[in-house]
Amino acid sequence: MGLRPVLSREERLRRVGILSANFTRNVAYYRATRRDGDRILPRQNFWINLEGNFIDVAVLEWCKLFADNQGWHFWRRVVTDVNAFELGLLVAAGRTQIELDRLIQQTRTYRDRFVAHLDNELVMHIPDFDPLLRTASYYFSHVVMNEMTECERLRGGLTDLDQYYQDCFDEAVQVFALVPQP
Description:
mainly alpha
């Protein structure tokens, strides 16, 4: 086995963007499977599995950004002004530090007990995606506006995570409308 390559700062920032987009897309696709809280897809294994995968991938990606303290893309290892970022993160999440810590722990617990392992828990609690979306959007915007150089921003790519969510949601709604209902 060879040495692991060290990513440049630009590559690391771009990967934060990729993880944020992957999380956001999967939440949008999952939410497009619901109308007024009710499932719109057939109760067949394929569709049930698809919905579960949307949830699980979203949680995995979000945890890389906010719950894996030693991970390469964890926000404290990426942003340059940790204190200012953390204050903005709390505002974006609409949470106190204690509430945000609880949210992170609940999301990590879902990942650990239902995605990475299948522990002895009898009830699965899907995380509340609203504050998770707000934190991912904040992190993404912060990286684009404060961590990337002007040159890096001009290279193109996704710059508005909220619009990306809407585009993904709309796309999924169109696709799911084509699914025959039993």
